[in-house]
Design goal:
543 residues; 29% helix; nine-stranded antiparallel beta sheet; elongated; alpha+beta; 25 strands
Length: 543
C-alpha cells in the first residue's frame, strides 16, 4: 500500500475563477483521508474514467452506473476489495489535494449509490458485502468522505457499520481482522462522539493484540508476511487512539515494537520474507526493523530462523516449523524446512496461491506441498501440534530437534546447519518401527543434472546443489524426481503456478538427508556414527 503524494500546483490562475492551487488551499486535509490506507491501484483518474484494477487483476470497466454484484474474475479477494470502497476513497483524497470539486462529487455519487443498493440484510445484497473485513476496511473511505459530505444517508450508513463492528458474535478476536474492526469502530466513535464505541474498541484491541502477537513478538497467525500488515495496522491504531485523546496501553506498544524483530528474523538475506504459510515469495517488508543481536532465533510460536550473518546477501538462511496446530493463515508444514544459501533459494515451500476455494489452493495447505517427513502406512492427522525438544546452537553450527504425533506415532526430525562451508543435514525417524519418507522441493530455477545411487544433483547454469540420502550410514538409492504432475509445483506469487523439481525419497526406518549447495561433487562419508562433508564432521544423529 502507498500514500498518495500531495501535488501542489506551481502556477496560479489569473482572473475571477480560482485555479487548482487556490482551490486546494481552501480544502482542509484531514487525518481520515491523508494516510497509508489506500492501495497502489487504481488511481483517482482511473476511477474517474470508470476503470479499476484490484488485487493485481486486469482493469474492470465500472461504467457510469455501477453493478454492485459484479465479480468479473470470480475471485474472493477482488470482491472484498471492491466492496471495501477504498478505490472510491482515492477521489476524496484527490479532492483534498487539488480542491477540484469533480472528485468529491463523483465520490459522493458512488457512495450514495452503494448505500442505496447494499442495505444490510436486504434481499439481493450479497452476503460478502457485510463480512467483517469489508466492513472494517470500508469504514476508512466512508469516514474520509464524511469530513466533506454532511449527509444523513452517510451518517446512517456509518452507524450501521458501527453496530456490526460492535457485535461480539462477529468480532475476530486474536486476528488481524479484529485489529481492523477495532480501528474502524474507534474511528466512528471518535468521529461522532460515541464514547461507548471508542471504549469498546480500545478494550478489545488490547486483548486481541495479546493473542495475535506473543510476548516474544511472534505473530500467531502462522504466516510471517502478515506481521508486516499487523505492525502497520497497530501504528494506525495507536495514532488514532492518541488523536482520540486516549492513552495507548503499554502492552500494545511493546508488542508492536517486538514485531519488528520478528519481521527482521523472518526476512531472508535477499530482502524478501520467507514464504511460510499464506506468504508470497515477493513480500518485501519495506520498513525499518533494526538489526537483531542474534543470528538465530527460536520462537515459541513455532519458528526457528537462522542465518550466517546480518547484512550479507550471500549469507545462508534457514527456517524450521513447529508449534500449535494449523490455524488462520497457516499450512500443514510442521517439521518443514526451507534453505537459502550462496545468494539463492535452495529448498522452498509450495507457497501461497490465493484464497480461492480450489483444489490447488487446498493442496498448497497440505503436507505434500512442504519439505516434511511422512510416516509410511499411517494416516495424517490435521492440525496436530509439534514441539521443539532439543537445541544445540553455536556461531558456526546449529542443530534442532522437533517432534509430533501427526501420524499417530512419534515422528521426529533433527536439523543441522553448518555455516561457512554450507551444509544442511536432516534426520527423520518414527517410533514403533515405522518407516519414514520425505519430500524435498527445490527452487524452480534448479533443474535435474543427475540422479542415481542415492545422489541427486540439480543445477542452474554453473551453480549446482547436491542431495544425498543415508539410512544408518548406508547410501539409500531410488529417489524419484517429479516436475509438475502431482507434487512438482510452486506458487511464488499471487495466482501463479510454476513447475518445479521435487525429490521424493524411498521409505526407510531412518533417513539422513544431506544438502550441499554450490557443488555437484561433494566429498561425503558416513561411518562409525559420524558424517563428514568436505572435511566438515558431525554426528550422524545430528543432535
Amino acid at each position: 500500500m502507498r500514500r498518495l503524494a500531495i501535488p501542489l500546483a506551481l502556477m496560479l490562475a489569473t482572473g475571477a475563477v480560482a485555479g487548482p492551487a487556490q482551490a486546494a488551499d481552501k480544502v482542509t486535509r484531514t487525518a481520515e483521508c491523508q494516510g497509508d490506507w489506500l492501495p497502489g491501484t487504481p488511481t483517482a483518474e482511473d476511477v474517474m474514467k470508470g476503470e479499476i484494477s484490484l488485487v493485481g487483476l486486469p482493469a474492470y470497466k465500472l461504467g457510469k452506473t455501477i453493478d454492485w454484484d459484479a465479480s468479473p474474475y470470480k475471485n474472493r479477494s477482488w470482491e472484498f476489495v471492491f466492496q471495501s470502497l477504498r478505490w472510491m476513497g482515492t477521489l476524496v483524497v484527490e479532492y483534498e489535494n487539488t480542491g477540484e470539486q469533480r472528485y468529491l462529487d463523483r465520490a459522493a455519487e458512488i457512495t450514495k449509490d452503494w448505500v442505496e443498493h447494499n442495505k444490510y440484510g436486504a434481499r439481493g445484497t450479497q452476503s460478502y458485502v457485510w463480512k467483517d473485513h469489508p466492513v472494517s476496511l470500508r469504514t476508512q473511505p466512508l469516514l474520509c468522505l464524511s469530513r466533506h459530505v454532511n449527509a444523513s444517508w452517510l451518517k446512517d450508513s456509518l452507524a450501521a457499520h458501527a453496530k456490526l463492528l460492535s457485535n461480539p458474535s462477529l468480532y475476530k478476536k486474536g486476528h488481524n481482522h479484529g485489529i481492523d474492526q477495532d480501528i474502524a469502530l474507534m474511528g466512528i466513535g471518535c468521529r461522532y462522539g460515541r464514547k461507548d464505541w471508542a471504549n469498546l474498541a480500545s478494550s478489545r484491541l488490547t486483548s486481541t493484540v495479546k493473542l495475535d502477537v506473543d510476548s516474544q513478538g511472534a505473530l500467531m497467525e502462522q504466516a510471517p508476511r502478515y506481521a508486516v500488515y499487523v505492525y502497520g495496522r497497530l501504528q494506525v491504531a495507536m495514532t488514532n487512539m492518541k488523536a482520540c485523546d486516549r492513552k495507548v496501553p503499554g502492552e500494545i506498544a511493546e508488542r508492536a515494537e517486538a514485531l519488528k524483530t520478528f519481521i527482521a528474523h523472518s526476512t531472508m538475506p535477499n530482502g524478501y520474507m520467507v514464504p511460510i504459510g499464506d506468504g508470497s515469495a515477493e513480500t518485501e517488508p519495506k520498513m525499518e526493523t533494526g538489526t537483531p543481536k542474534e543470528e538465530v532465533k527460536a520462537y515459541r510460536a513455532g519458528y526457528v530462523f537462522g542465518r550466517t550473518a546480518w547484512g550479507k546477501p550471500e549469507s545462508a538462511y534457514y527456517s524450521i516449523r513447529f508449534g500449535p496446530g494449523m490455524k488462520f493463515h497457516g499450512h500443514e508444514d510442521h517439521l518443514g524446512v526451507t534453505y537459502y544459501a550462496e545468494g539463492r533459494d535452495i529448498l522452498v515451500d509450495a507457497g501461497f496461491h490465493s484464497y480461492e476455494k480450489s483444489s490447488y489452493r487446498y493442496w498448497t495447505l497440505s503436507p505434500e506441498a512442504h519439505n516434511v517427513p511422512t510416516v509410511v502406512g499411517a494416516k495424517f492427522r490435521p492440525r496436530t501440534a509439534s514441539k521443539l525438544v532439543d537445541t544445540a546452537s553455536g556461531k558456526d553450527r546449529q542443530a534442532f530437534k522437533v517432534t509430533d504425533k501427526a501420524y499417530g506415532v512419534s515422528r521426529t526430525r533433527s536439523v543441522l546447519v553448518n555455516h561457512g562451508d554450507d551444509v544442511m543435514a536432516v534426520l527423520d525417524t518414527a517410533s514403533g518401527g515405522k518407516k519414514v519418507a520425505n519430500i524435498w522441493r527445490f527452487a524452480p530455477s534448479l533443474k535435474v543434472v543427475s540422479n542415481g545411487g542415492g545422489k541427486v544433483v540439480l543445477g542452474d547454469g554453473k551453480f549446482k546443489v547436491t542431495l544425498l540420502q543415508f539410512s544408518s550410514c548406508d547410501r539409500v538409492g531410488g529417489q524419484k524426481v517429479e516436475r509438475g504432475g502431482r507434487l512438482g509445483w510452486v506458487s511464488p506469487t499471487y495466482l501463479s503456478k510454476q513447475a518445479t523439481n521435487v525429490v521424493v525419497s524411498p521409505a526407510a526406518k531412518s533417513l539422513l538427508t544431506v544438502i550441499v549447495p554450490g557443488t555437484d561433487s561433494p566429498e561425503v562419508s558416513c561411518s562409525g556414527g559420524k558424517v563428514t562433508v568436505n572435511g566438515v564432521s558431525f554426528s550422524a544423529g545430528l543432535i
